[in-house]
Amino acid sequence: PTTIHLTDYKQPDYLIDETHLTFELFEDHALVHSRLAMRVNADGEGALPPLVLHGQELMLQSVKLDDQSLAADAYQVDENSLTLQPVAREFELAITTRIEPQNNTALEGLYKSGGMFCTQCEAEGFRKITYYLDRPDVMSRFTTTVMAKRDAYPVLLSNGNLITSGEHEGGRHWATWEDPFPKPAYLFALVAGDLYRIDDSFTTMSGREVELRIYVEPENREQCGHAMDSLKRSMRWDEDVYGREYDLDIFMIVAVNDFNMGAMENKGLNIFNSSCVLAHPDTATDAAFQRVEAVVAHEYFHNWSGNRVTCRDWFQLSLKEGFTVFRDAEFNADMNSRTVKRIEDVTFLRANQFAEDAGPMAHPVRPDSFIEISNFYTLTIYEKGAEVVRMLHTLLGAERFRKGTDLYFDRHDGQAVTCDDFIAALEDANGVDFTQFKRWYSQAGTPVLQIDSRYDAATSTFQLLCRQSCPATPGQPEKQPFVIPMRMALLDGEGREMPLQLAGEDQGRGTETVLAVTEAEQLFVFENVTEEPLPSLLREFSAPVKLVYPYSRDDRVFLAMHDPDGFNRWEAAQSLAVDVLQGLIQIHQAGRPLLLDQRLLEVHRAVLEDTALDAAMVAEILRLPSEAYLIELAEVADVDAIHHVREWVRRELATGLTEVMWTRFRQLGDDGSSYSADAESMARRSLRNTLLGYLMLTESSESLSACVQQFVEAGNMTDRQAALVALVNSPHEQQKQAALDEFAQRWSDYPLVMDQWFGIQASSPLPGGLERVQALMSHAAFNIRNPNKVRAVIGAFANQNLANFHRADGEGYRFVADQIIELNRLNPQIASRMLTPLTRWRKFDASRQALMKAELTRILACEDLSADVYEVVSKSLA
Ligand code: B3K
Ligand code: ZN
Question: Of 28, 230, 321, 483, which residue has the fewest beta carbons closer than 10 angstroms?
Fold first, then answer.
């Protein structure tokens, strides 16, 4: 496998103005005929370079240059390319390839999912369809004809607008689609199947009527309302907030069951994992509803941030992904609770992206090199990339940020550009200089921001001394200081925000400000500070850094009770819990008895009793820091101790707060048969079900019967599933088994519900987890070729069932490695994803390190390792 470097980027030698494709689809093969209008990408009369087209796993049938068939010695074909020598500056190239979609288990290129044909081309899947310049800076106008048997494939779709369609003899038919917008091949899509269509429409801000269509398998037709509604709200929001209007007359979403990720933003024809489209209260949880809304919005927003303006090369992936994740997060914040959304995102980032940034696959938001681009659809590119855009938004403010994005879209419409171009547009629109800021794109690793303070009563000054550093990451031993926007306030003894006056500035800064920390060491002095304040730092998590400030537990309690900023109230409660848990872990390791700091209990009691507080916030505070986050924070993570202590604290809280938990649980009431996916109802269910989980820890007959009753009588899947989770993780074997059996029987025809059933069991931390997972793998509904099933069973076990995955004899590692070896053959992208937990071996004790490395070494020794798996394994062992 070869490494590709950003510094080697060269413009393409040739361009493709027009792409005409004809697909003849059959059960045992497909023929792909392409006609490409091409020209050399250079002025003048110099010698023409050879034309090298990308292609993989193709059976080449014929090549014609300007209508002349080429003899076999007029071109060269190898595993990855087709090379020929053009003789004119402009020419037409016609190629026919034969492929076998029905045997495509990698789910990249053209493949079959159930009874339908569909495609996934990003990043480099188009080259598995036909020979082409499969790179994002080659943009072409596509016209696509799809031909197939009418009875099995009545619906034939591709990008853009339907131009013509017709019948062939022998029961076959065809349809021709034309996309007026030039696009790179990664945005190409095709679908052929027997699908039910849900119609709606949207009137754009300029008054154009857009047809909206969602295509699903007929049995799912009742489950599309939420996706359609989310789509319309996304379209409106992008007009309101970014001034971006949809540009075609039709927008289509197709749901498929076998899909490597969430969804794909193909121009005018988004293809979705059915898990990100289908949502009905009976079958989908609130979390699933939220995910549908988020993914529909994300893919829709790509129409501008990704499609109209795309990436020059794959090193720039975060240009579209980071920006689009930021956009969908803001959309969600506007539709629901801004604070809760931020808490969810920060929780996820810190437990997962920080771990990636501290591990062997750490890379900058704009990587310098890669072996397999599929491995770089990472938390760093997406989530950290979104944090980088958020920091730009914070530094500029909403209005100037919008001026910058207007210029960006305007200047680069129809182009394939770089992260530098994005920054340049923000700079030029506002007359600012982001040179130093751009280090966020080039330096990997999570910066540490260490802050110390000093109050001087005599001069009424308060000093903040900020020191930043960033640990070494692979290939980057030394780091330069970042620009860290630090939103903050100073609180007086009553928790009120104090006026901020920085030394050397004429104007005060109100009661909340953003300090730009740009030096390795930097002092900020506040004047006229009339009493010793407690600082509220890094509000809204204004930069993706690890903040270290010497708060006492009492300080954290005070902030958890009084900080006017909702995010930092949660953060204070969270960091108090982290501090308490870390202390108890040490005590447990020393073999001493555990005793709970009552301040944690009292904070939880106070938020439970505060009915004015958003119920979702209360739920977020009650949810203790995850095991994954505690592992990330540890130098050497003692998984058993972390699991034991966290469970112990949960029990202590449940025992100490039983009364108030019951009171609140009953007050919140159930939803009966009415269900609404609005933020307030979701918040209520979230808190009630969090409380149910706690109450079940008291092991009272009262809680067991409440739980069983909820399982039986729930009017929606959120409540039913929460009860099932609590039962599965309880010691009540009989009720547990009865519930699992009943659930499986009732939902056996609903693959997405069965995924939940698998996931709940695979992530249950009770002893015997590996044996349970092995049994699940032989369940009739399990299928290793379906990525959702792999994620629900193997993924849940390795990522969420840490106690069992890390069992001391290494059998958990061995099991996951065995599955990766099998998946490497079937679906390299999914295999590579499943590797992540093993790559974190440096976090654990010597014995587990050795066991994990042994499994990685065993994988590396396998024959026919895909580039995907090879890259991650070899870098992890390096
Ligand atoms: N752009 C796609 C991801 C494609 C991943 C290919 N391995 C989905 C998204 O981010 O919207
Ligand atoms: Zn995306």
Answer: 28
